[in-house]
Amino acid sequence: MYAVKATYDGITFNPKQPIPVKEDYEVVITFLEPIKKEAVRPPFKLGCMKGKYKEADDHDWFEPLEDFKEYM
Known about the structure:
Layout: E1 6-8, E2 13-15
Antiparallel strand pairs: 1-2
């Protein structure tokens, strides 16, 4: 008797490991529990911070910051 973990997608069984048998076997298939697929979503929506922060009107984007002048 062998036990093999597998998944079932509604059509086929997909073993998670090789099955070590070379002859025909009678099998019993037991459904344990559904595989829970977690929803993949971004941690935030693009544009969610729009209007929350305001930059200074006199800010020069091409001027290096004081804190990084020694590295430049």
